[in-house]
């Protein structure tokens, strides 16, 4: 008699688990193709073109071990404002297919010497400007904005790794 009761409880429990599993499976909603495109791994050619500064902010570096102090946040915000002013004074950032980048100055002639330019490389879906602060450019969605973050510090007080800039393609 005990075996029948145990078998009956096991069967009821198994049936309940099966019904709950089927309910969970039926409530899964498929992801739309628009959402699926949000996770986009860009190619090198996606970065080629002219980009205009469209946004700027500061945030603590991802590898920061402790919560930032108010003083660190204030210093980073002030530095971000200074760098944003510099970028805003430029017409646009051009990334060329031949491996160069050029920050264009307003009114500068095409034949003028390059004031702020250099080479770039492409690795793991990101474009890297060859500068001391190692700017990393990422595009997170096809035809989306480009985000610039910095992965190195030029010195102890630079706060570059706090900076985040958004760039919108203009061409």
Tell me the span between the first and last alpha carbons: 81 Å
Encode the helix/strand succession as letters.
HHEHEEEEEEE
CATH class of the largest domain: Mainly Beta
User: How much beta, percentage-wise?
Assistant: 25-35%
Q: Count helical runs.
A: 3
CATH architecture of the largest domain: Beta Barrel
Would you write up a description of this structure?
By secondary structure, the chain is of the alpha+beta class. The protein folds into 2 domains: 2-30; 44-169, Lipocalin, CATH 2.40.128. Helix content is 28%, strand content 27%. The protein has 3 helices and 8 strands, in the order H-H-E-H-E-E-E-E-E-E-E. The protein has helices at 2-26, 33-36, 70-88; strands at residues 49-58, 92-95, 100-104, 117-123, 126-129, 135-139, 146-150, 163-169. An 8-stranded antiparallel barrel has the order 1-2-3-4-5-6-7-8. A hairpin with a 4-residue loop joins strand 2 (92-95) and strand 3 (100-104). The protein starts with a helix and ends with a strand. The model is unreliable at 15-27 (pLDDT under 50).
């Amino acid at each position: 008699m005990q075996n029948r009761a145990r078998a009956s409880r096991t069967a009821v429990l198994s049936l309940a688990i099966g019904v709950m599993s089927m309910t969970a499976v039926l409530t899964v909603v498929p992801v739309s193709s628009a959402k699926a495109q949000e996770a986009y791994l860009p190619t090198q050619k996606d970065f080629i073109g002219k980009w205009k500064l469209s946004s700027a902010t500061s945030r603590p570096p991802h590898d920061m071990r402790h919560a930032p102090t108010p003083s660190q946040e204030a210093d980073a915000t002030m530095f971000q404002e200074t760098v944003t002013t510099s970028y805003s004074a430029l017409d646009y950032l051009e990334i060329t297919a031949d491996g160069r980048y050029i920050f264009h100055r307003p009114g500068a002639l095409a034949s003028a010497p390059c004031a702020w330019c250099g080479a770039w490389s492409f690795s793991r879906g990101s474009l890297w400007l060859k500068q001391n602060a190692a700017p990393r450019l990422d595009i997170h969605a096809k035809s989306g904005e480009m985000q610039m973050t910095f992965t190195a510090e030029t010195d102890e007080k630079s706060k570059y790794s706090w900076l985040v800039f958004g760039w919108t393609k203009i061409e």
